[in-house]
Amino acid sequence: MLRSSLSRRSAACATLLAIGVTTLVGGGNAAYATHGPSGVLTSSNGSFTIATTSGAPIVSEDGYTVTDAAWSPDGSRAVFINNRGDVATIGKSPLFPASIVYPIDQNFDELERATPEWVGDGSTVIWAEKSAGGLWRIQEALAGQDWGAAQRSPNDGKHYLEPDTNADQRIVVQRQSDDGSGVPTGTPEIGFLDGNTFTLIATDAASPTISATGQKVAFIRGGQVWTASTAGRSEVQVTSGGSVKSDPVLNADGTQVAFAQGSAIATAPTTAGATPTVVSGLSGVPDYRPVKKDRVVRLAGSERFTTATAISQSHWATGSNASDPRAEASAAVLSRSDNFADALGGSALAAAKNGPLLMTRPAGLHPATAAELTRVLKPGDTVYLLGGTGALSTAVENQVKALGFATSRLSGADRYATSISIANAIDPTPDMVLAATGANFPDALAAGAAAGAQNLPGKGLSAVVVLTKGGGLTAATKAYLDALPDTTGIFSVGGAADLATQAYLPAPLVGADRYETAALVAWIFFGGFNHLGVATGGNWPDALAGGALMASLDAPLVLAPGNGAQVGDYLWAVGDEHAGSIHTGIMFGGSAVLNDIQRDGLGLTISGPAGFTTAGNPTDVLRAATGVQDATAKRAATAEATGAPRTVADFKAAAEAAAERFAEKRR
Length: 667
Description:
Blueprint: H1 9-15, E1 38-44, E2 49-52, E3 58-59, E4 67-71, E5 78-81, E6 87-91, E7 100-105, E8 112-119, E9 124-130, E10 137-142, E11 149-151, E12 159-165, E13 171-178, E14 184-194, E15 197-203, E16 206-210, E17 216-221, E18 224-229, E19 236-237, E20 245-250, E21 256-261, E22 264-269, E23 277-279, E24 285-290, E25 294-299, H2 304-313, E26 331-336, H3 346-353, E27 357-360, H4 367-376, E28 382-386, H5 394-402, E29 406-410, H6 415-426, E30 432-437, H7 442-454, E31 463-468, H8 475-483, E32 489-493, H9 495-500, E33 507-509, H10 514-525, E34 531-536, H11 541-552, E35 557-560, H12 569-577, E36 584-588, H13 596-606, E37 612-616, H14 631-641, H15 648-666
Helix pairs in contact: 2-4, 2-11, 3-6, 3-7, 3-11, 7-10, 7-11, 10-12, 10-15, 12-13
């Protein structure tokens, strides 16, 4: 079974230095397009390494062989097939000397697998697989462990193999008839696979690769490299004579193609009659490693109120501006700023109600908060007030109403009853309940981002956070849990909550400390995410507003030692495994809260060879390099790509697997 870095991370931490502020399972004919811009050429040949034309090779840990390696959009990790037929990723972080292998889909069914590739922004990966005597089919899974895979190719009696994609998320494949015994036969053809629709590009063509721009494909015909437009026009024979060519890959702009030529790898310009140039030191399957910069942003103000407004402005549109490309809010959540007691369920509520979480003092509405409510909401929209009049006074409520907004106060006799009121406002009969202690803030804040994300459109489940009284339950919380249907999944986040909910047989998410618990939550509830949020584990206000944003981005919030002399252990662990899909790291709070060691450590963890840029208080955290993405549409596309939404049983199984995995780290 593939082992993760967590089994070795503790020893590694002892050697990490503080970061300054400066900065042969599978098949032949693999075809990969770079997501661009193109960097160095690399190759994999079923040995233990990925060879490169520049720098040291990347060596697999624990002796896993690497076949058909293809790079993520930022070049941070490569997806490959190992000697067991597992789909896994490998990369080398500047923070850690080993090249860590993480599984995406393990091969328990003895399938033949080949040609994995990252789709679009790296949220999912695809590959070709077949059972003995079966047809080749295209599978897709989220870029995270144990999320399951779904078939993308139609069941029409044809073989679908050799997938490739580019930044626009279109998939090109080779299609071929079956000889009746599970072997492709006859003349191959290539085309786009859109849902279950195959759109022909060219016949007598195999091993398609598409340029990052989406304007050109290269393929093999008669043992030679050809190119054409993606409409199937303007065919050009690039090579002729000599050894049979295979495994083509286009560079980002389609002006150069690399390919296997006998036992060697060669390159050629994509012009008629080009003369190939053999590349010294490479053999096997070529791929261009992209050099796309990732980004680390810091969302911070001079105080907790303005930090919350900066977080809101990073994602939510101005309500009166129909052309604002940011997400349109439907509501807002307002929390007291001086105590976390009534606020711990607020992150999940904000995501469920589709808006930001803001803060004010109990006695009156803070001017910055009032201005942000006016900016982000439309007249008549609802502002949810967390807690009774002792938490947010009647004066605060009247000031909100005077701005033209409706109010809904969610409160109870104490913080525990208030958490139930908040949960009922999300869903009176949720599919999942994440229980966390109300005596402290870290576990509940990590749980809030996870629960909130499950309530987003297209996710298929609902989830809430309720509070335990340390290791016990109040009468109100017990009555709430007792009344839930037997089908509701109970998850205990942290040791105190696990002790308190034992009568309900919870799935435990219990780490050795708050940092590991938050990492467990991230690992279980999120996969294929493009953002990673980081807050200090030492205080709550920034993490509260930040957790609401992360839930809306469908991405996890992890905790780090704010002023630590080395990068946070679990910041690294989550970021390194998921670096292939992450394009933006988000730091919540100023440098006095989260120092630049944590900021730069996050950047080095998630980025590839091009490194990362930094920014303060941007207004476009949802945007990838290719422009603004609609989060709802993306979730719907991801759900379609990976089959039915996850079930409660799936999450419980993931929790069990995570418990085993993290326990191995401690041994």
